[in-house]
Amino acid sequence: MVNYRYLGNSGLKITELTYGNWLTHASQVANEQAAACVKAALDVGMTSFDTADTYANTAAEVVLGDLLKGERRESLEVFTKVYWPTGPGGPNDTGLSRKHIMESINGSLQRLQMDYVDLYQAHRYDYETPLEETMIAFADIVRQGKALYIGVSEWTGDQIREGAKWAKELNFQLVSNQPQYSMLWRVIEDEVIPASEETGLSQIVWSPVAQGILTGKYLPGEAPPVGSRATDDKGGANMISRWIEDQELLARVQQLAPIAKELDLTMAQLALAWVLQNTNVAAAIIGASRPEQIHENVKACDVEIPAELMTRIDDALGDKIQRDPQLTVERNPAGRVA
């Protein structure tokens, strides 16, 4: 079963493996498969679910809302996000302006068929809207009872500090950041995590298995397995292409197999256990296209990787590990995406 961890300095507990429906619901996975995966998540004790209004242009929220309907609302922790373009993509259909935030939370709640979300997240930093405007809008949403807590995603350390100052002044809780984080992508470690620890945030990380690369199923010099993300023409292949094209990286990943074997884990379980070893990580988001993936992933819980094996992981991956904090800035939009 999945364990619970506190989210930031709040009293909210979430499951350390959180079910996410990016690239799956209303996209790569049929609704019947999605229903089976959500049931599997609930069966193993996962009660935290992450989505966003932009996933499948709002349709992913609709699917998740339908699948959670009938569950006891108080027993769930539901997260969604705002920033990226939705709807027809008009001038105010994106960003973190008060107008877009207020309209977006109402749309998300309608699609999720819920009165509130537990966590409402700024999906990116908006350089074109004053931070004060954004944070006041979030404060109002909390006071209206439409969201219980506020989080951010892919913010830099300095942006987190500024956001935390506004949250304290406006008397609401900023509790989390949602960054990419894995054995291969460690760009949050030098600046974002220290800033988060200072300000009482924890991480809800996405892509803990590096889009599937850390499963070990992509072998150097060989075609991707049929049915894998790398062969998906609905968006999955684009997301993983930067990893697949690096043959040396694929070879380095294969060196993790003996380490996983020593711990009696699959390589995917090793990758999840590695992420959860970081004390500032509250949860790792996992997606699934088949229920058995959920049951396998849960085996990463309660695993402690010895220091000697952590060192061997670093040695195996070597200079393929991305650590530059500037990548958080470089891989995010400098202005709104229309």
Question: What is the CATH superfamily label?
Answer: NADP-dependent oxidoreductase domain
Class by alpha and beta content = alpha/beta
Helix residue percentage:
25-40%
Can you tell me the CATH architecture?
A: Alpha-Beta Barrel
> Roughly how many Å apart are the termini?
42 Å
Order of helices and strands: EEEHEHEHEHEHEHEHHHHEHHH
Number of strands: 10
How would you describe this protein?
The chain is α/β, with parallel strands linked by helices. The chain has a single domain (4-210, 275-303, 322-330), classed as Alpha-Beta Barrel (TIM Barrel). Helices cover 38% and strands 13% of the residues. The protein contains 13 helices and 10 strands. It has helices at residues 31-43, 59-68, 98-112, 131-143, 157-170, 192-199, 236-244, 247-254, 257-262, 267-276, 291-297, 307-317, 326-330, and strands spanning 4-6, 13-15, 17-20, 48-50, 77-82, 117-122, 147-152, 174-177, 202-205, 281-286. The strands form 2 sheets. It has an 8-stranded parallel barrel with strand order 3-4-5-6-7-8-9-10, surrounded by 5 helices. Strands 1-2 form a two-stranded antiparallel ribbon. Strand 7, helix 5 (157-170) and strand 8 form a beta-alpha-beta unit. Helix 1 (31-43) packs across helix 2 and helix 5 (157-170) packs parallel to helix 6. The protein is globular, with a radius of gyration of 19 Å. It starts with a strand and ends in an 8-residue tail after the last helix. The mean pLDDT is 93.
